[in-house]
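Students often ask what a holo structure prediction actually looks like on paper. The answer is less mysterious than it sounds. You provide the chain, you provide the ligand, and the output is a string of discrete structure tokens encoding the 3D arrangement of the protein together with zinc ion.
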Amino acid sequence: MKRKEKILEILKEKQEITAKELSNIFNVSEMTIYREIKELEKAGLIKRKHGAILLNTEKEKEVVKVPNCPICEKPITRAHPYKITVENQTIETCCEHCGLMMHKQLEDKEVTALTYDFITENPISALNAYYVVGSSAIPCCSPSVIPFASKEDAEKFKKGFGGEVMTFIEAYNEIVNKMHINMKSCCSNEPVVFTIKDLKEKHS
Ligand SMILES: [Zn+2]
Ligand SMILES: [Zn+2]
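The corresponding structure tokens follow.
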């Protein structure tokens, strides 16, 4: 381990330390320690306070915690997740599939919803978008629901990847009915139980 890494390890244990103590531990001059301390400080890893050296914990706090989808609990990683606004609160879901499932939970509430064209990433009111449902392209949950601003673009996509072009309410009915029968199968991380024998029989 390099000395700089060791200094960080020591700080994790001890919370704070002085350059003099470090120079004793490593048996090097305080000047050498100061040089390394300066580099660590520049990198934002440590800070100095009243002559003591401390870990820079603010740096750790900056790490953005990825919120999870309220429907399937997957982390939301897309730049533009599906957004539903209800009573001044915005709920984000991992994808349009889970967005439609969320609409089911908010059935009698007044909502607005925003989606983003799959190709251009331009925002569209979810109600006005066209969706390719159940294509072979599955960027997130299955059956996938992929939004487009224009019907022509959705049809073009369908030509390449299959599925059906649907309006908002058609897509909603399709997903909610399918998932009602087969709840959580879309995004469950649980292992699927199978035997090779069964699979072979199904494919023969
Ligand atoms: Zn989800
Ligand atoms: Zn999803």
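The longest helix spans residues 168-181.
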